[in-house]
Amino acid sequence: MKPVVTKSSRRIPRVLIAKIGLDGHNRGAQVVAYGLRDAGMEVIYTGIRQIAAGVAKTAVEEDVDVIGVSSMVGAHVAVLKRLKKELEALNAADIPVMMGGIIPEEDYDALRELGAGAIFPPGSEVKNIVQYIMGVTNGIMDSGSSGNLVRQ
């Protein structure tokens, strides 16, 4: 497959996929990581049981375009709040964050208010995640607009 290149930087999008906290359910995150890789993106997968500070530091060190956080245990609001705080401390609050996993619809607004650019529930297709990332990296979409909220 031909690598995907963004218009703005003329480089392949770099995506960090993270599992923050004690959540050990990583199958979905791995499926997304492999899917993004197969779509021609560079993917950094942190593995399970990471801390927000480490994920933020890795995102900055790896110069990623987007961070994807998988949450399967109900801690998604707290996880995003902490990650955004850590990104701000590193002057990297402009890195878009997308959320995925078992996230009740009633929490979508809270996640958007905290800065989630997109939310991908179970069953989301990788092509929709690719579309979101390409939209953000090409400047087509605002990374925090409510129009980027993906529900399937």
- Specify the helix fraction band: 25-40%
User: Helix/strand/pairing class, anyone?
Assistant: alpha/beta
Q: What do the pLDDT scores average to?
A: 89
Largest sheet, strands/sense/barrel: 5 strands, parallel
Determine and state the CATH class.
Alpha Beta
In short:
This protein has 152 residues and is an alpha/beta fold. The chain has 5 helices and 5 strands.
Q: Would you write up a description of this structure?
A:
By secondary structure, the chain is α/β, with parallel strands linked by helices. The chain has one domain (14-148): Cobalamin-binding domain (Rossmann fold, 3-Layer(aba) Sandwich). It has helices spanning 27-38, 52-61, 76-89, 108-114, 126-137; strands at residues 14-18, 42-45, 66-71, 97-101, 116-120. Strands 2-1-3-4-5 form a five-stranded parallel beta sheet, with helices on both faces. Helix 1 (27-38) links the parallel strand 1 (14-18) and strand 2 (42-45). The chain is globular. The model has no long low-confidence stretch (mean pLDDT 89).
What does the secondary structure layout of this molecule look like, with pairings?
Elements: E1 14-18, H1 27-38, E2 42-45, H2 52-61, E3 66-71, H3 76-89, E4 97-101, H4 108-114, E5 116-120, H5 126-137
